[in-house]
């Protein structure tokens, strides 16, 4: 590595298998102090709702395919590996609060370079896969709050692909912000009944 700055850390599980993390050139890592609060609305008409977001001055920030795999340890804590184009993100989400309408998480994570390498490493040491990998098409918009960026609202339109001929999930909208009030207020601005905002995860979506 020459004169480049780097940090390293070693972690081991109960079987003394070791995972070494080396961070060089200060790559993207984060520990998010602001909770992530999210709610979903099912069976959305993309054209009409996305037009309303544009009328609120929402900016499109992503349009592409996402691939994700969840892992869990023996304490049932979960870790997600997700690929957005060439960017691979590894995240731990700690649930803070959950209601019928929204879920709130505290996030920590880092960026990696190769999806399959991360998957293979986690399987080799201390995690087991939680369900099938998911593939979905996502189009995202961001509604910025210039006075307080913590109150930015993100809108993600997701359409899950069919895996192994077993299931597919129609278009849904996920609204994400820092508070439950922001999420429900954003739904109202789009003309959506806040009672239609739900907190389903992938298993509930498949069942639905």
Label this structure with key terms.
208 residues; alpha+beta; eight-stranded antiparallel beta barrel; two-stranded antiparallel sheet; 18% helix; globular; disordered N terminus
How would you characterize this protein structure?
By secondary structure, the chain is an alpha+beta fold. Helix content is 18%, strand content 49%. The chain is built from 4 helices and 12 strands, in the order ββββαββββαββββαα. It has helices at residues 46-55, 115-125, 180-189, 202-207, and strands spanning 6-12, 18-24, 29-31, 36-42, 59-72, 78-84, 87-98, 103-112, 128-129, 134-143, 153-163, 167-177. The strands form 2 sheets. Strands 4-8-7-6-5-10-11-12 form an 8-stranded antiparallel β-barrel. The N and C termini lie far apart (51 Å). 20% of the residues are buried. Residues 1-9 and 20-30 have low confidence and may be disordered.
Query: What general form does the structure show?
Result: globular
Number of strands: 12
Q: What is the succession of H and E elements?
A: EEEEHEEEEHEEEEHH
Beginning-to-end CA distance, first to last residue: 51 Å
- Arithmetic mean of pLDDT: 81
CA radius of gyration is 18 Å
Percent of residues in helical segments? 10-25%
Quick description:
The chain is of the alpha+beta class and 208 residues long. It contains four helices and twelve strands. The strands form two sheets. It has an eight-stranded antiparallel β-barrel.
């Amino acid at each position: 590595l020459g004169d480049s700055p780097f940090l390293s850390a070693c972690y081991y599980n109960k079987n003394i298998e070791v995972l070494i993390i080396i961070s060089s050139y200060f790559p993207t890592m984060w520990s998010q102090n602001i909770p992530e609060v999210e709610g979903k609305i099912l069976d959305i008409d993309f054209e009409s709702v996305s037009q309303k977001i544009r009328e609120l001055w929402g900016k499109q920030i992503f349009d592409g395919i996402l691939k994700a795999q969840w892992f869990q340890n023996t304490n049932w804590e979960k870790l997600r590996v997700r690929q957005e184009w060439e960017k691979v993100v590894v995240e731990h989400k700690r649930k803070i609060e959950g209601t019928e309408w929204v879920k709130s998480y505290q996030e920590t994570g880092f960026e990696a370079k190769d999806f399959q390498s991360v998957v293979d490493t986690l399987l080799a040491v201390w995690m087991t896969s939680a369900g099938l990998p998911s593939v979905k098409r996502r189009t995202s918009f961001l509604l910025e709050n210039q006075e307080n960026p913590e109150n930015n609202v993100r809108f993600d339109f997701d359409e899950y692909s069919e895996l192994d001929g077993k299931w597919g999930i129609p278009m849904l909208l996920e609204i994400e912000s820092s508070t439950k009030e922001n999420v429900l207020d954003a739904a109202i601005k789009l003309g959506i009944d806040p009672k239609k905002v739900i907190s389903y995860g992938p298993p509930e979506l498949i069942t639905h």
